[in-house]
Amino acid sequence: MVKYIVKRILVLIPILLAVSFVVFAILSFIPSDAARIMLGANAPQEAVDALRESLGLNDPFLVRYGNYMLNAFQGDFGNSYRSGQPVFDEILVRFPVTLKLAVFSILTVTIVGILLGVISAVKQRTVIDAIVTVLSMLAAAVPGFWLALMMMLLFASYMGFLPTYGIESWKSYIMPVIALSMPGIAELTRMTRSAMLETIGQDYVRTARSKGLREGLVMFRHALKNALMPIITVIGSNFGSLLGGSVVIETVFSLPGLGNLIVTSIRSKDDPMVMAGTLFVALIFCLILLAVDVAYALIDPRLRTRYVHQRKPRWRSKEVAAR
Amino acid sequence: MTDEKNIAAKPAEWELEQDCIEEERFAFFRRLCENKTAVLGLILLTIIVGMALTASLWIPQEAVTTQDISVRFVAPCREFLFGTDGFGRDIFARVVYGARVSLFIAVSTIAISCLAGLVLGVGCGYLGGKFDAIVMRIVDVFMCLPPLLFSLSIVAALGNGMWKLILAVSITMTPYFTRVIRATVMSLTSMDYIEAARANGATHMHIILRHIIPNCLGPIIVEATINLSYMIMLAASLSFIGMGVVSPTPEWGAMLSEGREVMLDAPWVVLAPGLAIVITALSVNLLGDGIRDALDPRMKR
User: Fold this and answer.
1) Do residues A32 and A269 touch, judged by C-beta distance below 8 A?
2) How far out from the chain centre does Cα B231 lie?
3) How high is the pLDDT of residue B297?
4) Which residue of B has its CA nearest to A279?
5) Helix/strand/coil for B153
6) What do you get for the CA distance between the two ends of chain B, in Å?
7) What is this model's ipTM?
8) Quick check: B91 and B82 in contact, CB under 8 A?
9) What pLDDT score does B10 carry?
10) Do B153 and A145 touch (CB under 8 A)?
11) Cis peptide bond upstream of B248, omega within 30
């Protein structure tokens, strides 16, 4: 298992290198003049030219990328054009906000989604099931940022008991978390419901029932546990889209998070900041995907044995046969 | 494989077989029509698309951009069904015309990324080998960034505008379609009828065009409709944070972005475009689920 994880982390390195290349290439498309931005519009042309030269902005693309990566390997991801500070200073200040937002949201998604899904499956074809299904259909169709606006109107402005902008206290997280987790809740509820319905019909559930196990125990021990695989997939993929979604939600609520930082940096053409921020998000995203795969292996004994015994030849032959 | 001689000898049986094939084709529509929520989605979507397409017949094009300071922030009334915004523009007209923009963006991104995904996915799944390995590694790299962030950086590089937004979102979504189509193609290539066609001396082109692609269409249609509402939201989100379609083009996300500043004084400015997104996404989702269930009845619960 450890071997597998280490292997996956090693695979991440070339992928992240490639991501850095792609993002660097995209950023160098932007017609911007970093030197002009740093010195202001009134600076003399000679000073701008000199700064361009010293920043290496006149070099060809591959040379600039090479230089950037050489510095990056030494832990230097450049300084922000705006503040002049090393970019990771800012990123590390901003990251906790995004992390808190994402973790609270994924917890909300997991708890509410699984709970509603299980209830809906257990009470199949009842009023409760119908209500949950309709609500999850609706929630899936509501864009998070619009929900955020509506909540701001309702709770913050008309009733005035939740803060609207920035971070004052834990209350500031309530609306962003709801807005961010709503699409995930909808998806997870539906997924849990259909996965549960599949396992509820299985023989082992009937056996568990017939041996006199309490219904709650049957549902959570037998039905839900076997339905976990698709549920984990959905939670994992949601964590990724939460990272993306937080860009919009942070902008709506003016939260000083990573997503907000990236958007404002894109607007102000602060390339080193965009580059480092995007790479950072990519790293987190990949680590989450890895964590999901590990969670699979931990939960499914069939997969676990595969990693422990490493039956590679048989695996390969199967792949060839599939072709 | 049906023998030529047999067909000539037993025309009745052959006709019966044709009937069965025909029935199988209609079975999809029959199952779709039996699904009440899918029909509801289809009706809603037809109304929305119909309103968008016929907009110029009953709302003058000028209403979308005409600014009239004397009617700023008029609450919804008979003259302005959804009220007016800060420039005195009729929000109803802008929402209806916005449907054109938003739906066009969503449909064209789906079309472009499906087509690109089809070419790459069929190439990967059918050819396998080096081509597959290389393309899949690139796909892995592209999928390393959350879709919204990736399309955001592309839009930032290309600049604002509808076509640039479409291009950005298409590039972002192509890897996801490639994955799905590749998996489908890989499961098809081991089928007996492909083997049989190959034994008959069919060229690769023939196999791909006549056997692989038609059999991929089901999963592609499902994937496309299910992702359509995601496209609408992605495009709206990007426009909302000011990286996509910008005002005065009446795109729903851009309208929300504009209305956000003034929503405390005039909440209707953000109400109508948002509801338009919700209803459109809802109807597309309902229809998408219906299509998925109808194409694959085993999935239905």
Assistant:
1) yes
2) 7
3) 60
4) B145
5) helix
6) 35
7) 0.85
8) yes
9) 53
10) no
11) yes
d(CA A81, CA A271) in angstroms, rounded, equals 7
Q: Which residues contact A12 (CB under 8 A, 6 or more apart)?
A: A283, A286, A287, A290
pLDDT at A147: 93
- Residue among B140, B186, B282 minimizing CB distance to A137: B282
pLDDT per residue as tens digits for the range B106-115: 999 999 999 9
pLDDT 10s digits, A60-95: 888 888 888 888 888 888 888 878 888 888 899 999
Cα–chain center distance at B216 = 17
Res A243 pLDDT > 90: no
Using CA atoms, how far apart are residues A134 and A124, in angstroms rounded to an integer? 13
Nearest chain B Cα to A253, which residue? Answer: B260
**Contacts by residues A168-177 (CB-CB < 8 Å, ≥ 24 positions apart):** A172/A253, A172/A255, A173/A100, A173/A101, A173/A104, A175/A148, A175/A151, A175/A253, A176/A101, A176/A148, A176/A249, A176/A250, A176/A252, A176/A253, A176/A255, A177/A101, A177/A104, A177/A105, A177/A108
Inter-chain CB proximity B141 and A140 less than 8 Å:
no
Which residues pair with residue B90 across a beta bridge? B84
For residues B44 and B279, is the Cβ–Cβ distance under 8 A? yes
> At A92, which amino acid appears?
L
Q: How many CB atoms lie within 10 A of CB A69?
A: 14
pLDDT at position A106, please?
93
What is the predicted pLDDT for the residue at B1? 43
Contact B90, B67 (CB under 8 A): no
Please indicate if any CB of chain A lies within 8 Å of the CB of B189. Answer: yes
**Rounded Cα distance, A94 and B71, in Å:** 43
Do residues A290 and A9 lie in contact, with contact meaning Cβ atoms separated by under 8 Å? yes
Chain B residues whose CB is inside 8 A of the A281 CB are 145-146, 149
Nearest chain A CA: its distance from B144 CA (Å): 6
pLDDT at residue A320 tops 60: no
Average pLDDT estimate for B184-199: 88
Interchain contact B231–A (C-beta under 8 A) = no
Asked whether the beta carbons of A239 and A288 are under 8 A apart, the reply is yes
What CA–CA distance (Å, rounded) separates A247 from B254?
16
The answer to whether the beta carbons of residues A186 and A260 sit under 8 Å apart is no
Instruction: Tell me if B278 and A26 make a contact (CB, 8 A cut-off).
Output: no
Instruction: Report how far residue A228's alpha carbon sits from residue A238's, in angstroms, rounded to the nearest whole number.
Output: 15
CB-based burial label for A86 (10 Å; 0-12, 13-18, 19+): middle
Chain A contact for B237, CB < 8 A?
Answer: yes
The 3-state secondary structure of chain A, one letter per residue: CHHHHHHHHHHHHHHHHHHHHHHHHHHHHCCCCHHHHHHCCCCCHHHHHHHHHHHCCCCCHHHHHHHHHHHHHCCCCCECCCCCCEHHHHHHHHHHHHHHHHHHHHHHHHHHHHHHHHHHHHCCCCHHHHHHHHHHHHHHHCCHHHHHHHHHHHHHHHHCCCCCCCCCCHHHHHHHHHHHHHHHHHHHHHHHHHHHHHHHCCHHHHHHHHCCCCHHHHHHHHHHHHCHHHHHHHHHHHHHHHHHHHHHHHHHHCCCCHHHHHHHHHHCCCHHHHHHHHHHHHHHHHHHHHHHHHHHHHHCHHHHHHHHHCCHHHHHHHHHHHC
Question: Measured between CA atoms, how close is A306 to chain B, in angstroms?
Answer: 22
